[in-house]
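anyone seen this seq b4? input:
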Amino acid sequence: MSSAKRTALKWLVGVILVLWAGVAFYGYRQTDGATSSHSNGLTTVTVGYQKGDPFDIAKERGQLVKKMKAKGYKVVFKQFQDGNALMQAMKSGSIDYARTGDTPPVTAQAVGTKLAYVAVGSTKAKGSALLVKKNSGISSLKELKGKKVAYTKGTSSQYLLLRLLEKAGMSVNDIDWVNMDQSSASVAFAKGKIDAWVTWDPYTAQAELTQNAKALSTGVGMSNNRDYILAMKSYASAHKQVSKYLVSYLEDDMQWANTHHTQLINMLSQSLKLSKSVVRKMVERRSYSIHGMNTQVIKEQQDMADDFYKNGITTKKIKVSSAVTYFK
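predicted toks r here
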């Protein structure tokens, strides 16, 4: 190889290394959303949500975005269909915070995800239910034996179904567990391809009002299915002030939601593209709140974790309290 060619090759390798380093640095900065600076001087905080949840309410109302901007943060919202998808996105670094139900953090922690509980909300038990068709002839949980029951693995529907089977004195093998996402389950339920469906609002309310569904049992006394605000433990530890702002402003939105049902129903009806009657049913059977974790909710989550381990749904015993982050 000539001297000129060797010089050209060294120059090319040097350029590639510089470009690679730049890409690696950019990728790292983008993974940590709250450390990514923008030309407008704001720091991005990316939150994942599901339709109709507290973050969705905050997004539509607009006050949280304004308040966070005043503190130097740009809030970006990303919508997901269920908590399992949210956990995957949070783990990959594409979102900084996730709003899920009770089950996703337990199953995620059991497979080694180093997550942190940032805050908790009120129960959604009345809107969580096992649904059957009114004309199905099924009037008790025991009559589900041998039937196809739809749920979504890694979500609150999985735990509620487990608890309902225990209540009826049935084993996990007494029914045919049909794992599918909630949109697919809705279609399958409407077409009669499944015998029962375990779900949550607004799916529950919509099925009750438009799909001839009745709740064979709700989550009351079975599973509180609370809202949980989560982050990866490394992110939560490094961004405590961000979390304090976010939880405080989200709680302001929840207080507004409790006292402004008419505006809330109108707002969510447009956002969710659902009738006001469906949204009203969802809104009026729950209350809204976001606050720090406490011993009661930690016990609820620990009971779930123990139940999952006992039934072989998870293969690792976990200590929920080790993942709890308090923001005073």
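Confidence is low (pLDDT under 50) at residues 5-37. The chain has three domains: 1-31, 45-122+226-323, 126-218. kinda curious what u guys think
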